[in-house]
Amino acid sequence: MGANGDDDRAVDACPPVHDLTLTWRDGREESVRASEDETVLDAAEQADVSLPFGCLTGACTTCTGRTLDGRVEHGRPPRALKPHYLNDGYALLCVAEPRSNCRIEVGADVQTDLVSNPWK
Amino acid sequence: MATDPHHDHDHGIDGPGYATPQAAIEQSDREKVAYVIGLYVGTGVDAPDFIAVVDLDPDSATYQEIIERVPMPNRGDELHHFGWNACSSSCHMEGLERRHLVIPGNRSGRIHVVDTKNRRDPELETVIEPEAVQEHDLSGPHTIHCIPDGKILISMLGNADGELPGGFLELNDDFEIEGRWEPPGEIEFNYDFWYQPRHNVMVSSEWAAPKTYQPGFDMEDVEAGNYGRRLHFWDWEEKTVDRTIDLGEEGLVPLETRFLHSPEAVHGYVNAALSSNIFHFWKENGEYRIERVIDFESREHEGWDMPVPALPTDILVSMDDRYLFGGNWLHGEVWMYDISDPATPRQADSISIGGYFGEIREVQGRELVAGPQMLQLSLDGERLYWTTSLYSTWDDQFFPGEAEKGSVMLKADVNPRKGTMDLDEEFLVNFGDLPEGPARAHEIRWPDGDCSSDVWQ
To answer: Cβ A61–B306 below 8 Å, yes or no?
Structure first.
């Protein structure tokens, strides 16, 4: 315990911060920093980087991204994402928090990977 | 600009709407503007969804233009269906006006109230934030109906996590949440509803949980039983389900529930979108029954693995209860059936346009990149309008051009005496050339009520 208990608590409470590289399919790229207790979407909003979103509860997939490098964890169950997409690195960025530096594919067109025309 | 004109109700009371469906036909003016849902959710356009005000006055210099847009305060709502604070069901309520549009975000769960006192320049008045809705363990707001005494009922498709069960949320006339309308446990799936108060009945239909339909359509979910196929007939006053009818394999995903407008009528229709059928429901010997009355056959399409279903995603009944209109979104067909014998609909006319098989592929030089979807009919039954977007993620699967080029709003002139309709080739509202980028367009409403809003006591 340090001389100043309050400071120690403050240090203990401060979650690690990671560098996120957000990459769009048209080649655009942005870097933002995110702590482990904030979602990728919130971190991007804080940095004035606009990402798609809808329900903000993990139910609608509007915010779907794909983790190309690094690791995220969902703070709330990503209910709308089927297990095979989770295994393929897809994540719901409205509820996904970084656990390492990450490179994440973002943009509205990532969501379109999840479904296709079943009759075609 | 005048608000709801408070038509003569023939009973000395100055409430909203009209005394009877026939009064709505006789006393209404031609629609001068339309309110149309415009969407940017799920596209690369970084802008909120909006209500478009479309000029429908042929004498106006801005006829068939979007003359105003009311942007929502947040992105990501997926505005979808909307409704009025009051309609003809409250025409006994002196002082109540049809003036406020209640506009939910189906994805966000946020509920907006827009004041249309100035019909050509409406203003956002109130917002109910999603957290307040989720407190009632509900999400996915869909259909809005005003109910008598100024209250508003909203079908909710999921719980706070976007899973089943859904339910109904009630607002008071100050646009505050009153709470859950029905006792818990009455239904699992929810979608659209319509009530017929004289017969103490409400009918509700089934889509799926938000977590199932919002990502898009996955056949695995159909096979897993994650899509609905039942109709629920409610005791309107008790707010409990009296009877549930399973429509079976031929009744998958029953969507729009439309009772005839006559308050005496005990007949209605529902479109089973996925199995591409129309069901008639009616009351007989004190009990509601259903029968499949229209089948749309799937069609082979070169290069597709499976026959293409018609997907009739919207239907409506004309104010005079003589015709059922609908659109087959995938096939590209707008149709009208004579329902003067409700149990035996008879095809009157159709227009083959857009979609995968429509003969008309462009209007005013604008390529059609989707089929006819949400419909709205003038109160006099002489003008049918439609838009082309179903739901952002479903558009992306079946008509990705909607995101790239935007939706259109089209019009047909209807002759309700002859049972015919003709495309108005001069009419086009192009949602593809807006300043922020191409937008989708969904439900349409008129300021003085329309064929899918008004109910009579």
So the answer is: no
